[in-house]
Amino acid sequence: MSEKLKGKTVAILATDGFEESELSEPKAALEREGATVHVVAPDKDSIRAWAKTDWGGNYDVDRRLEQANADDYDALELPGGLFNPDALRQNEQALAFTRRFFEAHKPVGAICHGPWVLINAGVAKGRRMTSYPSVEQDLRNAGADWVDQQVVVDSGLVTSRKPDDLEAFCSKLVEEIAEGKHSRQHA
Fold first, then answer.
1. Active-site positions?
2. Would you state the pLDDT for residue 184?
3. Locate the DJ-1/PfpI domain: which residues (predicted)?
4. Torsions phi, psi of 177, nearest 5?
5. Which of 57, 88, 97, 185 has its CA 20 to 30 A from that of 14?
């Protein structure tokens, strides 16, 4: 175990239907580097994963969304999947929680369909980002500069396309969290 993220606390915001590997692999990578990681979810004690083509395992929730305060965390990670970000992007509490990380210039990671949450939170405009290909037009419509790359970093925001990109995504997410807050402002 490394000490790169010792003393850092990271929130993973998710609900039922998150892509299993997009929560489990970043969580493990962050913990290996010494971070404390909390799974944050609305109104649940556990959430169920989607594992590529069918329902996956259940994951314990460390904090219910209404009890979580973004100011208590150093960074945020948003896993994808179809169901998870679609539900979260319709939850005003989840959007406010997400926006707070951007207001405080804290690192945020979003993979696959996770950027849907960023679009609805109003924080995608002016950002260079990637995502699952079907989210490309949504990001462009929201004012983001979408590129087809394995991992994209824009002033503390780390985005990736799909589970195949997880190694690069986790590496960059650890790097950005280790760097801490980023000062760049966006319109």
1. 113
2. 60
3. 8-176
4. -65, -40
5. 185
